[in-house]
Write a structure and sequence with these properties.
CATH superfamily of the largest domain: ATPase, nucleotide binding domain
CATH architecture of the largest domain: 2-Layer Sandwich
Keywords: Cytoplasm, Transferase, tRNA processing
Structural class: alpha/beta
Oligomer: single chain
Number of domains: 2
Order of helices and strands: EEEHEHEHEEEHEHHEHH
Strand order of the largest sheet: 3-2-1-4-5
Number of strands: 10
Family: Belongs to the KAE1 / TsaD family. TsaB subfamily.
Helix content: 25-40%
GO molecular function, one term: transferase activity
Subcellular location: Cytoplasm
CATH class of the largest domain: Alpha Beta
Radius of gyration: 17 Å
Protein name: tRNA threonylcarbamoyladenosine biosynthesis protein TsaB
């Protein structure tokens, strides 16, 4: 893992930037639910200055592609595209749910993680992830947006203990308490660019980058919103 990658994320209430150069990570992170647009570019400038690099010195620009707040995800990809376009960098979108799984491993060493972000509208963004020997993550449950009560019906118990990450566990504690999984608590509520940049290295190694104009967010509600429009079935 030797690519020089800058990552940023504004998909949730947390705003963060991380730059990985070799084994060194420069990062800034702040809880700023309404100030993403004010905070993110100064953070980018700070980590680049600390590393002694410019955008043109980098290999790629990674971003939290969602799911998360519609506004937050749009802000993140818009800023990332602007930076990448100006420096002619390829882009790497990273799941915010998978990033939280990596964060739980970084902080607690957990290898089985259940990610749940409060999606509002009585739903959660959900995904389960299992860490592989090479440090990557396997998706056990595909990312989805789902009512907690329906999730309880669909998830099957297994022999693993799953670490809980994300805001969904607090927002829908009563419903999610009925999950058949064996669960353990963590203090991981939000994705962090430190973990996004780590996962982006795996995508870089596999050649999974996209041009600026083809990079896109993941809302998970895209299809639902589209079908609600007249004539858009």
């Amino acid at each position: 893992m030797s690519a020089k990658i800058l990552a940023l994320d504004t998909a949730t209430e947390q705003c963060s930037v991380a730059l990985m150069v070799g084994e060194k990570v420069y990062f800034r992170s702040e809880f700023a639910p309404r100030d993403h647009t004010k905070k993110i570019l100064p953070m980018v400038d700070e980590v680049l200055k600390e590393a002694g690099l410019t955008l043109s010195d980098l290999d790629a620009l990674a971003f939290g592609r969602g799911p998360g707040s519609f506004t937050g995800v749009r802000i993140g990809i818009g800023i990332a595209q602007g930076l990448a376009f100006g420096a002619d960098l390829p882009m790497i979108g990273v799941s915010t749910l998978a990033a939280m799984a990596q964060g739980a491993y970084r902080l607690h060493g957990t290898t089985h993680v259940a990610s749940a972000i409060d999606a509002r509208m009585s739903e959660v963004y959900w995904g389960r992830f299992e860490r592989q020997e090479d440090g990557s993550w396997n998706e056990v449950d595909a990312e989805c947006v789902i009512p907690p009560a329906v999730l309880v019906e669909e998830v099957q118990k297994d022999d693993n203990t799953w670490a809980k990450v994300g805001t969904g566990w607090q927002a829908y504690a009563e419903d999610l308490a009925n999950l058949s999984l064996t669960l353990t608590d963590t203090d991981m509520l939000y994705p962090d660019s430190q973990d996004i940049v780590y996962l982006a290295q795996f995508e870089w190694a596999k050649g999974n980058t996209t041009p600026v104009e083809e990079s896109s967010p993941v809302y998970l509600r895209d299809t639902v919103a589209w079908k609600k429009l007249p004539g858009r079935e």
